[in-house]
C-alpha cells in the first residue's frame, strides 16, 4: 500500500470530520499506521490487516472523538495498539497521555511507537488498570469492557471533575442501567466515522461526587 494512498484516505476523512492538522502531524499519523502494519504481520496486534482499513478503522475512529477530549492529562485504558491514546497524543502534543494495557506485546509496540515517533508526551504502563495510580482529567476506553467493569476497575483514575469517554457502537442501554454508584452519564454523541458503515457512539461519563 503506497503512502500516498494512505495520506489520501486520511485527508478525505479529516475533511469529512471538519478537522485540520499540520503536515507534520498528518505524516506522524501515517508513520504510525506503517509501523502498526509492520508489527502486526508478526505480533497480531489488530484484526485489521489492510493499512488502508487501518486509516479508517483506527485513525479516523480515534480522531472522531477529538472534539470531546478535554484537560491536560489523559489515560487510555486497555489501549491495545495505542488506540485512541497514541492518535490523541500525536494530534495534541501538549497533553500528557498515559497508555495502560496488560498485554506485553502490545505494550512493547506502544513503547516502540513512542520512540519511533518521538512522542515526548506519552508514558506506557504495562499493568492491570486496577494497579495504576494517579488521576487524570480525561480517561478514554475503546472496546475495552462493559461500562460497569471499566468503572469498577479504573474509576479511581478519573479526577473529581474529569470526563470518562467510552467509545461504543450501538447505545448499550443495559450497561447504562448498570452504572456503578458514583458515576453518571453526562451526555452522549453520535460520532460517524468517515468510510465506516457502522454505528459509533461516544458516552461521556462523570462522577456524581468526590472520588
TrEMBL record:
<feature type="binding site">
    <location>
        <position position="78"/>
    </location>
    <ligand>
        <name>S-adenosyl-L-methionine</name>
    </ligand>
</feature>
<feature type="binding site">
    <location>
        <position position="83"/>
    </location>
    <ligand>
        <name>S-adenosyl-L-methionine</name>
    </ligand>
</feature>
<keyword id="KW-0808">Transferase</keyword>
<dbReference type="GO" id="GO:0070043">
    <property type="term" value="F:rRNA (guanine-N7-)-methyltransferase activity"/>
</dbReference>
<dbReference type="GO" id="GO:0005829">
    <property type="term" value="C:cytosol"/>
</dbReference>
<keyword id="KW-0698">rRNA processing</keyword>
<dbReference type="Pfam" id="PF02527">
    <property type="entry name" value="GidB"/>
</dbReference>
<comment type="function">
    <text>Specifically methylates the N7 position of guanine in position 527 of 16S rRNA.</text>
</comment>
<feature type="binding site">
    <location>
        <position position="142"/>
    </location>
    <ligand>
        <name>S-adenosyl-L-methionine</name>
    </ligand>
</feature>
<feature type="binding site">
    <location>
        <begin position="129"/>
        <end position="130"/>
    </location>
    <ligand>
        <name>S-adenosyl-L-methionine</name>
    </ligand>
</feature>
<keyword id="KW-0949">S-adenosyl-L-methionine</keyword>
<dbReference type="InterPro" id="IPR029063">
    <property type="entry name" value="SAM-dependent_MTases_sf"/>
</dbReference>
<keyword id="KW-0489">Methyltransferase</keyword>
<keyword id="KW-0963">Cytoplasm</keyword>
<dbReference type="InterPro" id="IPR003682">
    <property type="entry name" value="rRNA_ssu_MeTfrase_G"/>
</dbReference>
<protein>
    <recommendedName>
        <fullName>Ribosomal RNA small subunit methyltransferase G</fullName>
        <ecNumber>2.1.1.170</ecNumber>
    </recommendedName>
</protein>
<comment type="similarity">
    <text>Belongs to the methyltransferase superfamily. RNA methyltransferase RsmG family.</text>
</comment>
